[in-house]
Each structure stands twice: as C-alpha cells, then as structure tokens.
Recover the amino acids of this structure.
C-alpha cells in the first residue's frame, strides 16, 4: 500500500508539473492574429464545396481536383467543356483561386489544389468580391498539374485598325457584351468586341460615333475605349442619344455578344428581355440598321427586332446554345464572320476569301454566308432582312431575304440602291 501511495504521489506531482510547463509555454507564445486552420479534408468535389454544406468546410484546408481556367477569373472548374457555351457558369461548378500559381499553367490543365477555403475578404481582388467562397493557396507547390491540357490555345496577333482615307459621315455603332458576372465574363467577349471595333474603324466609323457597353465598364486592356457598364439603363441612355443624333440618311451597326437566356440577354449581374431591347432599338430611325448577335438563344431576338431596312443575323436559333471557337478566344460564329470581313482568320492562322461575286468587296450578305457555312459548332445561324418574319437558316438569298444585305457594305450602299 505504501508503494502505491508513493506512486500516486509521484504521478500527481508529474501531472501538475507538466500542466504548469504547458501553461508557461502558452503564456510565452505570441497571440496568433491569423485565422485558425483546421486539418486537411482530402479531395472534396466542387459541387460539395459549393453546396449548403459549405460552412462545414470554411476556414479549413481542403483539396479539390478539377480543371484550371482563367478566361474570366482564375478558377478550378469541374468540367472545362462548360466554358465553350455561352451560358453563365452554374455557381456550384467552380471555385475561384486566390494566390500564386506555377509557371506553365494552362487553361484546361487537370489540377489538384490544396488550400484554405475562405469567404472573400476586402483585400482580395474585386473580381472575387461577389463570390461565395474562394480557395486560397500560399505556395505554388500547392497547385499540381495532374494532366496537361488538350486544348490548342494559341496567341493571336492583335488586329489594329487600318487608317481609312477619312471617317465616313453617318456611321454609328454600339457594341454590347454584358459578361453576366466576373466568373462568367469570358475573355472571348472582350476579344469579339474589340475585333469588331477595329473592323468598324478600318471601314470609316469614327471613334466618337462607336459606343462600347462592356461588363463592369472597365476594359481588359487599353486597345478599345469602354463608355458604359452593361445595364439596361446604359443601353437606354445610348439609344436615347442615338434618337437625337441619327437621321434617316445614317447607318447603325449593333453587336450583341456574350451570354443569353431564352428571350433575354445577360448584362452585368442583370438580364434584359428581347422585348425591352427591341423597344430601345425602335427609338432610332436610320436608313439601315445592321444587328449581329452572338449570344445563346439569339434567334429569339429576331421577331421583336424585325422591321423595315433592318439586317438581323444570329449565331443560333431561339432554342439553341451558342458556342466558343476551339481557341476559346472568340465566338465560333464571330470568328468566321470577322475572317470574312477582313480576309484572314482572326487568330492569324491563314487567309480566306468570302468574295462570292468577285467584286473585290465583302457585303454583309457575303460575310454572313461565309460565317454560316464555316460555323462548325452545334448551332444554326439565322438571318432576316426582308422586314417580314420569320427568319431563315441556310444560304441566303432565300425567299425575300438577302437583297438588302447583298447591296450593303460596311462602307456604304452600292448598286441600284445608290451609295
């Protein structure tokens, strides 16, 4: 019994000594001002991270596998094929990446990323401020490439406007790409807009008569001015200005790009219906209006926009999605439409000849027919210029459609209509 008592006494003494030492160490340690990070949870799916269970994983180390994409904001996405269509990305399909990334990382690389799952902070880039969660990495080694990208993405030469002999009078344009959100605002929308901007400038459209309405109102680079953020209010403002300045002798070019929904256009965190957009266009009475649309379901805009002296083309029907070109740098339809107007592929990979009648110029009709016939995506371009619905697919002329656009070039009218 005596030995047991001695043993218990020693044990209690040692326990008290250890606890006192631990308390002293804790007291001497500086108080941490960083957020406590829990142990790593291995291999969560993106959909689970973005599910109602998300709060379970906040402020913890997690590992996620997916595909790297930075055509909008840097992210890990569950399926790279999602970014080929012009519908906004589902919120549960991607997680934005914050932090350093290894050199050589390419869009489409299959990756494994280990980092801390956090709510965005005011110190993060504005592009992720509206996201529900981000994954933050501290070291480049925390992002590993599991499988190289199979995408063939090439750097394309910058298209600079050639200098026309003079700016032509009576040429107006508005170029619109809403982007939908930071996460869905693909770089191809900016590329499409600035390519069309440069084509118009090369054909005599003065810079002061081209209005650019883009995403949050901030351009991706300095190659094209951006005048307004993409909202219904700014679109109304521009068409109000047009109604006061455009006369019956002028031409108006309208380009709609980016995401669409059935009977609607995605702007910047807001949508606009095809009916409301048509109301704005109807404020203006130029000699001719050219409307070229790229967004998903763009065919649904044709009926409310149909009118006298209007050329309307869409990249797809009213019930179809529109698609990116394989480079992810342009839309599929716009890639070929630009090629027709300029005589060379937009990515610099070769020349083309869309001059079907051999007159040395490319009419709006020739450009549309060339784009339609070369469009390889599962989309059906539609066309209308007779002023009478419905729109048609296939080669133009078709029925009453085609005469107006066959006599119109970006530089003006020719033939029987006069110049």
């Amino acid at each position: 019994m005596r030995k047991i008592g001695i043993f218990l006494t020693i044990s209690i003494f040692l326990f008290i000594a250890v606890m006192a030492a631990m308390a002293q160490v804790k007291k001497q340690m500086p108080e941490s001002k960083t957020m406590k990070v829990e142990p790593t949870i291995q291999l969560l799916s993106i959909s689970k991270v973005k599910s109602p269970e998300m709060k379970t994983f906040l402020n913890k180390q997690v590992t996620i596998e997916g595909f790297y994409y930075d055509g909008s904001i840097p992210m890990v996405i569950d399926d790279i094929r999602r970014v080929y269509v012009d519908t906004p990305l589902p919120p549960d399909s991607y997680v934005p990446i914050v932090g350093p990334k290894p050199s050589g990382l390419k869009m489409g690389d299959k990756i494994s990323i280990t980092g801390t799952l956090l709510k965005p902070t005011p110190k993060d880039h504005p592009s992720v401020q509206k996201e529900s969660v981000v994954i933050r990495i501290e070291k480049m080694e925390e992002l590993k490439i599991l499988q190289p990208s199979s995408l063939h993405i090439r750097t394309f030469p910058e298209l600079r406007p050639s200098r026309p002999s003079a700016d032509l009078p009576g040429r107006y344009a508005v170029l619109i790409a809403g982007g939908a959100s930071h996460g869905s605002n693909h770089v191809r929308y900016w590329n499409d807009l600035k390519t069309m901007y440069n084509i118009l400038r090369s054909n005599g459209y003065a810079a002061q008569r081209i209005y650019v309405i883009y995403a949050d109102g901030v351009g991706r680079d300095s190659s094209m001015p951006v005048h307004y953020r993409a909202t219904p209010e700014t679109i109304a403002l521009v068409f109000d200005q047009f109604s006061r300045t455009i006369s019956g002798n002028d031409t108006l070019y309208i380009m709609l790009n980016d995401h669409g929904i059935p009977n609607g256009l995605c702007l910047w965190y807001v949508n606009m219906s095809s009916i409301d957009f048509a109301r704005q266009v109807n404020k203006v009475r130029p000699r001719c209006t050219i409307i070229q649309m790229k967004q998903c379901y763009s065919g649904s805009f044709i009926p409310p926009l149909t009118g006298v002296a209007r050329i309307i083309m869409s990249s797809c029907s009213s019930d179809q999605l529109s698609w990116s070109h394989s480079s992810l740098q342009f839309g599929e339809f716009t890639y070929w439409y630009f090629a027709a107007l300029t005589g060379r592929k937009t990515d610099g990979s070769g020349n083309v000849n869309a001059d079907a009648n051999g007159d040395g110029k490319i009419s709006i009709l020739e450009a549309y027919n060339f784009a339609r016939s070369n469009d390889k995506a599962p989309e059906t371009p539609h066309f209308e210029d007779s002023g009478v619905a419905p729109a048609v697919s296939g080669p133009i002329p078709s029925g009453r459609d085609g005469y107006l656009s066959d006599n119109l070039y970006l530089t003006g009218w020719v033939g029987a209509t006069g110049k």
In short: Residues 38-147 form a domain with the OB fold (Dihydrolipoamide Acetyltransferase, E2P) fold (CATH 2.40.50.140). The first strand starts at residue 38 and ends at 44.
